[in-house]
Design a protein that fits this description.
The structure holds two protein chains of two kinds. Chain A is mostly beta strands. Chain A is 7% helix and 52% strand. Chain B has a 22-stranded antiparallel barrel. In chain B, strands 4-5-12-13-8-9 form a six-stranded mixed sheet. The chains are: A mainly beta, B mainly beta.
Chain lengths: 335, 788
């Protein structure tokens, strides 16, 4: 008897129970969801439309989307899925709708999506361009492959939220013929910051505060990933019964493209959460996060951006060959 | 001339000898002179004659010593109360504590031997060590903070855990003081246990409203915990062995003027860790804490004592997942891939505190203290892939982050008759640590690449706090007392200094067994603790106010009435209305501890809150059966311009109804039983209503009410004397009838797969459902204590 009591007490001590609480899901069965990012750097703007159900989402391929730009209505075209070849069946419509429009800061843009389940709309104003004084390359560490760029703002810097993105654009030209041999780009990364904070990526990034403690100069570090360039040609000489390596001389040019965008507060927090920012913790116990939404009649987020872009020459090389890049793949050419 | 001299001598002699003819008159003189109240057993006879020297009025202690010298009565003064006891040869631990504090009126006597709730004043309630010993708690760990949750107006911030919510305030709005020193992180085991074992404390008082001017720094409450001093007569020690933790305590004299008290506690799991690690056990948790106190009676009116606390928690978890996949390569040859995902997570956190106190003649108290909180989170994982033994790759990932906070503080408090005044200053450093992530990939035993990303330690934050206060208790009219006070609080950080005057005012009327109080208090709070989950976590960070996040300010009005004219009973009711400004909430983003002030100030938004309620309490204070029944009706809302579209929503701590019942029955000196029952309306929670393209979606904050929570707890203490000391068996059961309360809730999706835990074939797959976890059910308590 004593043993049984002790066993039951021990069992009771480790019992925990799991159950479920059913939720009163009494909202509309279906709601339209509209998401879009409107950038002054684009002439074609994509709007995605989905349907929100109580148990999931589904792409909305039966919507009608238009953009009202400063009072002028522009119909959006629906994108279709890519066809792989001419024999493939007719491409399916997608839930992506494109609008051709040039937008500039100050424009009032309204997106409207009409669906069988209601109308979703969002009105926004394109923000002012970031007031940049200069963008320049400050230093390059070839060993660590880190390129430092500094972005200086004007004295009448407007407080707000900003996104800085950078790419490396590489072109290779055959010197003999002037032909463009290869063109590629590599994304170096992005950072978001506000006038109060600077997003550090863990390497070297300093902020110099100007008057009124507002950020004036951002120094960003871009990791440069070496790009394999072009190919070296080998020709099979029938007479010699061997492959002969043809020496080709290239001129390689690398430019750094820097885009600084003024973004909305919602866009800032969405990007901030998605960028690697150290150890983000929720420990599995956090309450549900309510993502920001600014669509009426439905759900979703429409984010405006105004961008300025700079191209900075970074590197120019010529006469490189297989000796410099032995790992570049060989292409066999039969002649 | 001669006659005059004889007459004067006679008068002088008469005055000296007959100044106070009985002890009772001497007591009355002391009461009038110092404004204190006396508490004593009715069995003590004060009508006996007093033939000692005149009470000269040098100090309270001196007059008490003189009045009761040579009698079998001892007098001990604490704050504004004096307790008289019959002297005993071997004082027991419970007897050295201040068992009961008189309810309201000095004319009302209370039997101090019975465990009773104390009532230091309107808006304040206290518990004694005796009551704490008898109260049933989870895992057998007597917990002062958990016991305070049974009082009206006080509830658990989360059911089963020790965080407090007082009158609609959040867990960070309570100032926990240990001998007047703030304790910033006072929890173990994610809030299941508080940092204050019963053996180390003598009493705890919570101030919910009508705050004395000396208290401030938090919006909702001040919990004043006094540590137990060492016994100055003889060595006492004891130990407790229970199902989960072991404790040891010792206190005694060190010579004539020194005494010490040391208490230690640790979980059994720390002893099992070497074995569990060898067996590759997946999960373990343990903690230890040590409380110590050293008292030195520097003089007849001066006491110096050192308080020390150190506690550390560890948590480790291992997760494994194996997968198998049969696939084909580009040549359509079949091969198999096995993957092993092994993850290790470890969390270590702890608090250290040291404080030096100087008490002067029961009138003054000065303290210099230092405290530190430290936290480290580490995560290692291994990902092994084996594709048909052709290639074996191993990826190892590591990450680690840490943070620590320090505070240095000096405070002083003085009482001079009806006046009280003092000041404080503190310097607090918040140090969010750096972190790193590292990844290494090995293919076929050879290192392919290694990558490490260091996240620089964000800028540390330093904040300073200082202030002065003054208060008074002024009697007027028939039975009226006015208690005006003012407190000036100054908060400073690197970019802002805030100065707040905090007026306090209370009017009390006493008569015919009644006490009526009306009062107003303003409180401010310069620090914010951001809670990221459903319970208090060591990852919840404290941050100082600054230019972007101002201090919180709260105004509270209260009206209370208490009737204690019926012998052995007390009935009280209190109404309150509270308005707070500058409360903070996380914006819609995941919290991170490794952020500086600017990042943190962007993550939070400031808003306002309102709380109002009515509290009712009926107590039985005498006889073998004692206890109380408390009912609270309350409502608490919050509103933030930047979240929830600016609409008001119920505060997370909003519980419409709350009932607390506690009954303690004593059968002689050997057996006492305690039964408690609590009920609380459901808590609000933010739950998903549908899906959006960004995951679960909720249209508003706290849009759902969880089911009500209720539970009953039972405890029996069996005392038996031994040759040396006593032994006590404690048996109890927490959550007696296994109420399925939602200790934790998580949103999940309904599944059509019968193997999944959330299997609901009647619902469309993916429908949001709330998963409820009840952790604390049928928790037995068995412990054995021995006291020498």
């Amino acid at each position: 008897m004593k043993r049984t009591i002790i066993y039951l007490l021990f069992l009771a001590a480790v019992v925990s129970c799991r159950g479920e609480i059913m939720l009163p899901l009494d909202g509309p069965e279906v709601m339209p969801v509209m998401n879009a990012r409107l950038s002054t750097a684009d002439t074609e703007h994509e709007v995605t439309v989905d349907y929100s159900y109580l148990h999931g989402t589904k792409e909305a391929t039966d919507a009608s989307v238009k953009m009202i730009l400063n009072g002028n209505s522009i119909e959006a075209k629906q994108k279709t899925a890519m066809r792989h070849d001419e024999y493939a069946p007719a491409p399916d419509p997608t839930n992506v709708y494109t609008v051709h429009a040039d937008i500039v800061p100050g424009d009032v843009v309204e997106l409207v999506a009409e669906t069988p389940y209601g109308k979703a709309s969002s009105k926004t104003t394109i923000p002012e361009y970031p007031r940049i004084q200069s963008v320049k390359i400050d230093g390059y560490n070839p060993e660590k492959k880190i390129l430092r760029v500094s972005v200086s703002f004007d004295d009448d810097f407007v407080s707000g939220y900003y996104l800085v993105e950078s790419w490396l654009m590489q072109t290779a030209i055959i010197e003999n013929t002037g032909e463009l041999e290869d063109e590629s780009s590599g994304y170096c990364g992005s950072r978001v910051f506000s006038d109060k904070t600077i997003r550090r990526n863990g390497t070297l990034a300093d902020v110099v505060y100007g008057k009124d403690d507002i950020t004036k100069i951002i120094e960003l570090d871009n990791h440069i990933i070496p790009h394999s360039m072009s190919s070296h040609y080998q020709t099979y000489d029938k007479n010699a019964h061997e492959f002969v390596l043809e020496k080709v001389w290239y001129s390689r040019k690398v430019d750094l493209r820097v885009r600084v965008s003024a973004i909305s507060q919602e866009d800032y927090f969405m990007i901030k959460d998605s960028i690697d920012q150290g150890i983000v913790l929720d420990f599995g116990t956090a309450e549900s996060i309510r993502p920001p939404m600014n669509v009426e009649g439905g759900l979703g987020l429409v984010c405006p951006r105004s961008c300025v872009e700079y191209s900075l020459p970074f590197m120019e090389q010529s006469h490189y060959s297989v000796d410099d890049y032995p790992n570049v793949p060989l292409v066999w050419v039969w002649k | 001339m001669k006659r005059t001299g004889i007459l004067l001598a006679f008068l002088l002699l008469a005055e000296t000898v007959f100044a106070q003819t009985t002890l009772k008159e001497g007591v009355q003189m002391i009461k009038d002179r110092y404004g204190v109240t006396f508490i004593y057993d009715p069995a003590i006879n004060l009508d006996r004659p007093y033939a000692g020297e005149k009470l000269e009025g040098k100090s309270l202690q001196a007059d008490l010593r003189r009045l009761f010298a040579g009698t079998d009565i001892s007098a001990s003064a604490k704050k504004r109360q004096v307790v008289l006891k019959k002297k005993q040869r071997r004082p027991r631990r419970a007897d050295t504590s201040l068992s009961e504090v008189q309810l309201l009126d000095s004319a009302l006597l209370v039997d101090w031997r019975k465990p009773v709730l104390s009532h230091p004043g309107a808006g304040a309630l206290g518990i004694s060590r005796t009551t704490l010993d008898e109260f049933p708690v989870v895992f057998g760990e007597k917990d002062a903070l958990k016991m305070l949750q049974l009082l009206p107006g006080v509830q658990a911030a989360n059911e089963g855990f020790s965080g407090l919510s007082v009158r609609g305030g959040y867990a960070d709005e309570n100032l926990i003081l240990l001998d007047g020193v703030p304790v910033w992180q006072g929890e173990h085991a994610f809030g299941l246990f508080s940092a204050f074992p019963a053996e180390a404390i003598s009493d705890a008082t919570i101030y919910k409203g009508n705050y004395p001017a000396r208290f401030g720094g938090r919006l909702s409450s001040v919990v004043d915990i006094q540590s137990a001093p060492g016994n100055s007569d003889s060595l006492r020690w004891g130990y407790t062995i229970s199902l989960l933790a072991d404790k040891i305590h010792a206190d005694g004299p060190l010579g004539k003027r020194l005494s010490y008290s040391v208490s230690g506690r640790f979980l059994h799991t720390v002893l099992a860790e070497p074995v569990l690690a060898l067996l590759d056990n997946k999960l373990n948790y343990w903690f230890y804490d040590v409380n110590a106190r050293l008292d030195w009676k520097a003089g007849s009116e001066d006491l110096l004592y050192l308080t020390l606390y150190n506690g550390t928690d560890w948590y480790r978890e291992k997760n494994t997942a194996k997968k198998y996949q049969h696939t084909y390569d580009d040549n359509y040859a079949a091969y198999d891939i096995w993957t092993d995902d092994i993850g290790y997570e470890g969390l270590e956190w702890g608090t250290g505190l040291a404080a030096l106190h100087w008490n002067h003649a029961e009138n003054g108290r000065t303290a210099l203290s230092w405290s530190r909180y430290n936290m480290v989170l580490a995560n290692n994982s291994q990902y092994l892939t084996n594709d048909s033994d052709i290639h074996v790759s191993k990826q190892e990932n590591r990450s680690e982050t840490e943070a620590h906070d320090d505070e240095l503080r000096l405070s002083t408090d003085w009482n001079l008759g009806p006046f009280s005044f003092g000041g404080w200053a503190s310097l607090h450093g918040f140090h969010p640590g750096g972190s790193f992530r590292e990844s290494r990939l090995y293919t076929d035993g050879k290192k392919d690449y290694w990558w490490r990303k260091n996240y620089s330690a964000p800028e540390s934050m330093t904040a300073a706090e200082a202030g002065l206060y003054a208060g008074a208790a002024v009697p007027f009219g028939h039975g009226f007392t006015a208690s005006p006070g003012v407190r000036l609080s100054i908060y400073g950080s690197k970019d802002m200094v805030y100065v707040y005057p905090e007026p306090r005012f209370d009017v009390q009327w006493q008569g015919a067994g009644w006490t009526i109080n009306a009062g107003y208090s303003r409180m401010t709070q310069g620090y914010h603790r951001m809670q990221s989950g459903f319970t208090i976590l060591p990852l919840d960070i404290w941050r100082p106010s600054g230019a972007d996040v101002p201090p919180m300010v709260g105004d509270q009005f209260s009206l209370s009435g208490c009737f204690a004219g019926l012998e052995g009973w007390e009935i009280s009711a209190e109404l309150y209305y509270k308005k707070v400004h500058g409360v903070t909430e996380y914006r819609n983003t995941f919290p991170s501890i490794s952020v500086d002030y600017y990042d943190w100030s962007e993550m939070v938004v400031s808003g306002d809150g309102t709380a109002r309620g009515a509290e009712f309490l009926i107590r039985k204070t005498s006889g073998p059966l004692t206890g109380w029944l408390a009912y609270t009706l309350s409502k608490a809302d919050r509103v933030f311009p930047d979240i929830n579209d600016g609409a008001s929503f119920p505060a997370t701590v909003d519980r419409r109804h709350r009932i607390n019942f506690l009954a303690s029955y004593k059968m002689g000196q050997r057996l006492n039983m305690t039964l408690s029952w609590t009920f609380a309306s459901g808590a609000p929670a933010t739950v998903p209503e549908r899906y959006s393209t960004m995951g679960f979606y909720s249209s508003s904050m706290n849009n759902f009410r969880l089911p009500p929570v209720h539970r009953a707890d039972f405890n029996i203490n069996l005392h038996s004397p031994c040759r040396k000391g006593t032994r006590t068996w404690t048996l109890g059961l927490y959550n007696l009838y296994g109420a399925q309360n939602p200790d934790a809730v998580l949103p999940v999706s309904a599944s059509a797969n019968s193997y999944d835990t959330c299997y609901h074939p009647e619902l469309p797959e993916g429908t949001p459902v709330l998963e409820r976890w009840t952790i604390l059910t049928f928790i037995p308590t068995i412990s054995f204590s021995r006291e020498f």
